[in-house]
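User: I'll paste a sequence; please echo it back and then give the predicted structure.

Assistant: Echoing your sequence first, then the prediction.
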Amino acid sequence: MREILAGNISRYRKDLGMTQEALADKLGITFQAVSKWETGQTIPDTVLLPKLAQTLNVSVDKLLGYSAFNNDTSFYEDDYRKAEYFWGVEPNTACLKVIELMPPTKPLKLLDIGCGEGKDAVFFARCGYEVSAFDISEAGLEKTKRLAEKARVHVRTFRADLWDYRLDENYDVLYSSGVLHYIKPELRDEVMADYKTHVNETGLVAFHVFVSKPFVSPAPDDNYHHLWKSGQLFTYFHDWRIEQCSEYIFDCNSSGIPHRHAANRLFARNVKRVGISIYSGR
């Protein structure tokens, strides 16, 4: 939490073009205090949080990293409120690759980033992983809980926004399927750096992103997407061991209008030191 708050204070201050001295003057404190907040040495007193958030033009929740999009819902909120599972309950094929590369032969912590209605998170829990999952959609999280209860497994769920939430613990596996294109391009470097920092040594990322191709028409809901470029995801993990990286095109009917997506799927392992050898089962 301290690191998340520190980063958000710095980011929102700079977004407003405000110096540390200017922020300190508005709050009636020293600029050294602001500097210590932004480096994580100290945190603001709780009585200052409302005024600090107001000065930075954000809510306290947003400042702490637990905000939602401006309309406080996900694009799929209405669909998630329906009884049926919008994405179904069968796990993504990427889940099987995770099991192959990182089998849960010992307790492994896995985070599902943007879990939707929880089909993949619950599958991982059934396979023996210690699963945490977050999404912006309350309706999606409720369906995740119900699916986990039906499967008699536990998934730790919490609500968070991709744009603002920064990890506060390490995981053995970070998993995300079809979600990272919602991250604004200007935040991508920061978010990816945060994710990399919170993967344990020899741990794995399994990410699936939509990419832009001139021969693939924009999806019906493309206004909500920030498509990646081919090879862009790879560059963030160039210093990790790439277990698999592939591109493909698939048909989709999620909006009720048949369309296609181009996608990039990456599995990368946090192995940077010479001498470390991990058997991947291949």
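The CA atoms of residues 5 and 64 lie 5 Å apart. The chain has a mean pLDDT of 87.
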